[in-house]
Design goal:
Blueprint: H1 2-12, H2 18-40, E1 75-78, H3 88-101, H4 109-115, H5 120-127, H6 137-152, H7 158-161, H8 167-173, E2 179-183, H9 188-197, E3 209-213, H10 226-235, E4 242-246, H11 249-258, E5 262-265, H12 272-276, E6 282-284, H13 287-293
Parallel strand pairs: 1-2, 1-4, 2-3, 4-5, 5-6
Helix pairs in contact: 1-2, 3-6, 5-6
């Protein structure tokens, strides 16, 4: 009430410039949102249960009243494709090139997205029409996977694997006391390439990521927890002190197996129906909702 009254008085003031008057509604929304954050996000645990008493958050910021308290979080771990980077077309086109060069029929976009739950060698072996019971499954997958990685990583740029709108600002808004890590089911060289190409003078995100892992430098790929546990070891944090953000059901399963709370994002390769069946603590429809779950002030 006091915040609203103050800004209304500012708006009516004859001494306030027209530019400041134009900004007053935005300033008011930020002030109100910040006040809600203070009242709304308890300090007791990283994940606040649904039955926790609280005021309702702004509807455009979250899909439910649950929130993560960053004061109790030591690290945030991210998937790459479909979570940070809008890179599905790069992966799809590179897959078609590899399949065609090996005399294998092309796949549909839907088949590509369905295959994204697997690490690259297994995905390509399946696209080649093989099943895990085939004696050549692993051999063919490794060969096609290497060919894919050699082609794929060299094509990474902000045009082919740029961050989704708002991701750079979100990463920049997270307090520097919170460590960043990355885990992808693609090769680790690809993860490095994506984070490097999206770093600039405004958002030097690459240096924030103290641990970067891919399917080729961890014992087992997702949904196994090995990669997440390896990142935690690098960062000297416990799984329960972290949050993992991903766009695939395997991300939620890996996090659950590691004992880590997780958030599923709906702007990647998988829809709400498939992610709702995975053990995510929360789902987000857009980057603004993810900001809301982290209690970060909206960008003006």
């Amino acid at each position: 009430f006091l915040t609203s009254t103050t800004f209304c008085a500012m708006y009516r003031s004859r001494h306030l410039s027209s530019k400041m008057k134009a900004m007053t509604p935005k300033l008011l929304s930020v002030a109100v949102y910040t006040t809600l954050c203070v009242l709304n996000f308890p300090q007791s645990s990283a994940f606040v249960p649904t039955d926790s008493p609280r005021m309702s958050p702004p509807l455009h910021m979250t899909i439910s009243s649950n929130a993560f308290d960053l004061n109790n979080v030591k690290a945030i771990l991210f998937d790459i494709d479909g979570t940070l980077a809008d890179s599905w077309k790069l992966g799809f086109d590179a897959t078609q090139v590899v399949l065609e060069s090996n005399g294998i029929g092309k796949i549909t976009e839907e088949e590509y997205h369905q295959g994204c739950i697997y690490a690259t060698p297994e995905r390509l072996a399946r696209h080649a029409g093989l099943s895990p019971s085939d004696p050549t499954f692993e051999e063919v997958g490794e060969r096609l996977g290497k060919e894919f990685d050699d082609h794929y990583v060299g094509l990474v740029s902000t045009e082919t694997a740029g961050f989704y709108d708002g991701i750079g600002d979100l990463l920049d808004s997270v307090p520097s006391t919170i460590k960043f890590g990355a885990l992808t089911n693609a090769c680790v060289g690809y993860a490095y390439a994506v984070l490097k190409c999206n770093s600039n003078d405004k958002n030097d995100v690459y240096d924030r990521f103290e641990s970067i892992k891919g399917a080729d430098n961890v014992p087992l790929p997702k949904p196994a927890p090995d990669g997440l546990l390896a990142v935690c070891s690098d960062l000297s944090v416990k799984p329960e002190e972290c949050i993992y953000v991903g766009d695939s059901p395997t991300d939620g399963k890996a996090a659950e197996s590691a004992g880590m709370p997780s958030i599923g994002v709906l702007w990647g390769s998988h829809n709400k129906e498939s992610l709702s069946k995975a053990p995510f603590k929360q789902l987000c429809k857009n980057v603004d909702e993810l900001r809301g779950l982290f209690g970060l002030v909206p960008v003006l």
